[in-house]
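Following up on my earlier thread - several people asked me to post the actual chain instead of describing it. Fair enough. Here it is, all 805 residues.
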Amino acid sequence: MIRSARVRALFALAVIAVSLYIAATVPVRLGLDLRGGTQIVLETRSTPTAEADRAATDRTLEVLRGRVDALGVAEPTLVRSGAHRIIVELPGVQDPKKAAEVLGRTAQLTVHPVLGPAGTEDGTPAKSESTKAGSGEQVLPDESGQRLRLAATAMTGEDVKGADARFDPETGAGWHVTVDFDRAGRERWAKLTGEAACRPAGDPARRVAIVLDGRIISAPQVDPSVACGTGIAGGSTQITGSFDDAEARELALLINGGALPVPVETVEQHTVGPTLGARAITASAWAAVIGTALTALFVIVVYRLMGVLAAVALLAYGLISYAALAALGATLTLPGLAGFVLAIGMAVDANVLVFERAREEYAARVRPTGRSALTAGFRNAFSAIADSNVTTLIAAGLLFFLASGPVRGFGVTLGIGVVASMISALVVTRVLADFAVSRAWVHRRPGVTGLATAGRVRAALARRELRPMRRPRRWLAASAVALVLAGSGIAVRGLDLGLEFTGGRMLQYDTGRAVDPERARTALADAGFPGAVVQTAGDAGLTVRTGELTDARADAVTRTVGALGGGAEKVRDELIGPSLGEELRRGALISLGVALGAQLLYLAARFRWLFGTAAVAALAHDVMILVGVFAWLGKPVDGVFLAALLTVIGYSVNDSVVVFDRVRELARRDRGAPLADVTDRAILQTLPRTVNTGMGAVLILASLAVLGGDSLTDFALALLIGLAVGTYSSVFTASPIAVELDRLRRARRGAGPRRGARLRGPDRRRKGTGTGGSTGTAPGTGAAPGRDAAGGSRERTGDARVSGH
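Reply from S.P.:
Thanks for posting it. Predicted structure:
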């Protein structure tokens, strides 16, 4: 015992020391939604001559990497996503137009001999000048608009060694691009210009056309000094035109970066201004501080000294989570920051489970001590803690593997938070608690620990003989009514699908003064955007959501909003292509299906198919109600809402797991009891935990909803609704379904009255506690030692037995 305590203490100290070192030396990488910048998702497209397979996408990625490096962006990120997509993150880049243009251009550079004019003076093609099929000839306008017939390609970008943008003030030529050829390119260039030099001066065929992405960017005449058949032997040439500084440098960048093996199309684009990210960080930080403080105050009031130790362990949780995030190199996004804060409630959940079990153990013993009750509490609560956290980890894993972008970051921080909360509760809290209860002054004053009192919820339950499963169909009828109301909201109001699922463009502005959304909607309709959806954002801001818009049309929206608001600063710009929107909708449905299926499989393996089915049915009930409430409220259903929905699935199943874990334990002790009676006792014994953990989570989420800013308000609201519905359904939906399924199973088999609930797991008795804390005839309400719930005396034994109702 002493040795294991020392091992735990050394482990806790080592974890905290390593976490402190990492937190002090390794910075956390912030996502673009927190530090500002542009994210562009490109999709490769096949052509008649090139297949956009995985290898072509990899080659395209390398070309794009060269172009991004040439842009001079600090800490860019380029990764392939699947076989056809490339995600480019450009921190600090606030002009997505230029970045998308540079990255999206194929940059196919070719050089052609000019055969002559393409048509007569009236513009009709001359018969003798018609192109020959399969000859490689093409007709393109030059810089002045004259149509030229070009021969087949004589040189490509593969012959280019490098390009440089230069300014020539002496000749007055302005900006131009000097192109240097490699050895093979020099020979081809000399041959090409030597053949052109054989034509008389002024003949269009004496010109050489330089074509970029199907457009003639320069078609100079070969100088009269160049000898016929000899050509230009210097191995370089100049591309001249009406270039300014930026255009010349961009052209040189594209030539140096090389041509893309296959064309690319922008399917998603996000731009966030630095001010919006800074506001989000500040708001989330305040929400975390105030939520943590309120939660810590709550557990201190309820659990006294143990609550103080749990509050200290919460600080350790925050340190461990932050260090793990930094050590793994994970990117902290805005939803991820919310996940970090949310996991505080999960850390409290594990502590509450332990303390409530310790209270039950204290009440069930003849000569209770804080140390023995605490030891038994940690031991008996471990199963429920492990099961509930595994279900949350399943949700976090699905978010990581099936979601994308910032929502994936939420899955990462949620998963890290769950693991850190278990270390915090099962190791740090236990080390502190073991040290505290071994002090003599604590032993003499057991009330100070908070374990010797039943707690208000448990005391209130002790005064009532409640049997919620006496009529389970009434609760199922209430759930059915709630489902009908939710379904009515979806049918009548419909779902306001977010930009991720519909495709289109969303622009968010900070305006100089507040603008009425209706007035802005009218002005935008007059400007040619009749379908624009306008909403307020903060005190002086607007979001405008439209269908697909070109950059020029987006600029028109900005001018319209600026005229109304006395100036408009664009702080967010998001573009989702229609194909990606359809794919994300399909992915969302798959995510929900996989989430429910994974929870069913895990719960069926840990308990029984009957309880797994009941829990998953309750989860589907929670999902339906949450979606229906958002439909009635007119709130957007987007990627962040999907993250909240999957979190609710993991969080909601926690309560069901705790109840079913207690049902399993009681069923092993009292095999002769009907399942409804066992479930009644399990519900009432675990209800104090449900109330106290729910309060901790409510304080955290309320802080996020009030202080987290516009970006997190709907997210926190969804979780608050899901928490309330999930708490209800774990008791009044999952449990009645389990009881009714058991009754139907027995009816089909023609069995008599149910005697005992069989659940998976070894039939073992816990030494010294019997039911793990249930007392007398009361349903685990923690009556005073030596007394039953009715106030009568009873003989205390090493194993407290559970009698029926």
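The chain has four domains: 37-104+261-271, 109-259, 274-492+583-749, 504-576. That should answer part of your original question.
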